[in-house]
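note to self: the first set is below, dont mix up w the second
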Amino acid sequence: MSTTYILWSIFLGALGFAYFIYGKKQRKAIPLFGGVGLIVLPYFTSEWYFYVFGVFVVTLSAYFVKL
């Protein structure tokens, strides 16, 4: 793992945690699961650019999906 990957993981993991807490407090499923996705995503990626791309995909899908 590179230093870049670790720094992205820390920053975007904190963003995912904040998104998770927001979804929990507002009782909304999409931000809740989007936050979980952002927290879990580093376990499935090996390069920082795949991770950043995955974060954009999860964030945009959570933004555009309305239930």
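second set (the one i keep forgetting abt)
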Amino acid sequence: MSFLTAAFLMDKYGPLLTEEQLGEVLHMEPGTIRNQRGSGALGIPFIKQARTPLYHAEDVAKHIDQLRLRGG
């Protein structure tokens, strides 16, 4: 995981991202994030806090770095 990517995400969003924030980072609509999370296709672990799915900035950074390595 790139510490620069994780540091950027933590600085801008804090340690946990909402689906709206994740959509902003990945350039996806929040509904698409929800659909992919529901089907298991998103590939980013999440936690639920008061029924709200939240994504750790470090997990999102790992996902972004994997996308970069795959070229997509």
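remember for set 2: The chain is about 60% helix and 15% strand.
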